[in-house]
Amino acid sequence: MNRLKRPEIFIIIAYLAFCFWYTNTSGPLTNTEIDAYLAKLTQREAANQNIPIIEDFMRRDTGNQFVMVNLIDLNPTPPDLPATGPNADPMALVDHYMAHMYPTMFRRASHPIYLAPVQAGAIDLLNLPGASNWTQTALMRYRSRRDLMDIVTDPRFSERHDYKLGAMLKTIAVPTEPSFNPADPRLLLGLVAIIFLLLFRRGLRPQRAP
User: Fold this and answer.
1) 79-to-84, 151, 158 alpha-carbon distances in Å
2) pLDDT tens-digit series, residues 127-170
3) Which value, to the nearest 10 degrees, does the dihedral of the CA atoms of residues 32, 33, 36, 37 take?
4) Which residues face 81 on adjacent strands?
5) CA–CA separation, 193 vs 17, rounded Å?
6) Residue of 145, 138, 151, 153 whose CA lies nearest to 40
7) What is this structure's pTM?
8) Rounded-to-integer distance, Cα 68 and Cα 111, Å
């Protein structure tokens, strides 16, 4: 059996390094961490109404990745804010908010996995008056609940959050924990790595004499 060559070793190490970075290896939130996050959240008046829900979300942490499911109804007449000025398009406010969120999320192996405009009103709606019209949908992957809490308790998040609120008439954000995700980059990159390794193996076989 041929020994691994340098390109093959690089592929294996790169893939393992990505998986280590992309996967939460710190386990679920501890009570000490939860109490510290709650202390930061209670300093922000706007978040008070959601604190019991957020606390429950943290205390039931499994340590796994999760996906935030978002439904968004954009505000056609958003408020005048310093960075976007008067008569701004709602997406200008969203872009200003996400200009902070994207790099902050990417550093923590968190990212959007699906973004799409809504094409019609709700086709199936039960006991939700006023919830038939939406503008955008988004699925945002977070490596862990710890990563989300690090993001939302950062003071820079509070500075941008008004732009998110101003850009929307209404929104729903529900955390979900996927049991299976065939689009997980660890799976897709693993398949790519296997293909390259097989190609290298094939290329390293000695050619038989005619």
Assistant:
1) 9, 24, 17
2) 888 899 999 999 999 999 999 999 999 988 888 999 999 999 99
3) -150
4) 85
5) 13
6) 153
7) 0.89
8) 10
Contact indicator for 41, 153 with CB cutoff of 8 Å: yes
E-strand stretches of 4-161: 66-74, 111-117, 136-142
3-class secondary-structure state, position 167: coil
Q: Which residue has the tokens 């939460």?
A: 24
Q: Say which residues have a Cβ less than 8 Å from residue 15's Cβ, sequence separation at least 6.
A: 189, 190, 193
Structure token pair of residue 140: 């945002």
Low-confidence ranges of the chain (pLDDT < 70): 1-2, 45-49, 204-210
143/18 Cα distance (integer angstroms): 13
- Element spanning 37, H or E: helix 31-41
Q: What is the pLDDT of residue 208?
A: 53
pLDDT for 206: 46
Whether CATH 3.30.70.100 fits 6-204 = yes
Q: Given CA atoms 191, 177, 65, 106 in this order, what sign does their dihedral have?
A: positive
- Round to whole Å and give the CA distance between 9 and 28: 32
In sequence order, the β-bridge partners of residue 112 are: 140
Question: What is the distance between the alpha carbons of residues 139 and 130, in angstroms, rounded to a whole number?
Answer: 22
Mean residue pLDDT across the chain: 90
What is the reported pLDDT for 123?
93
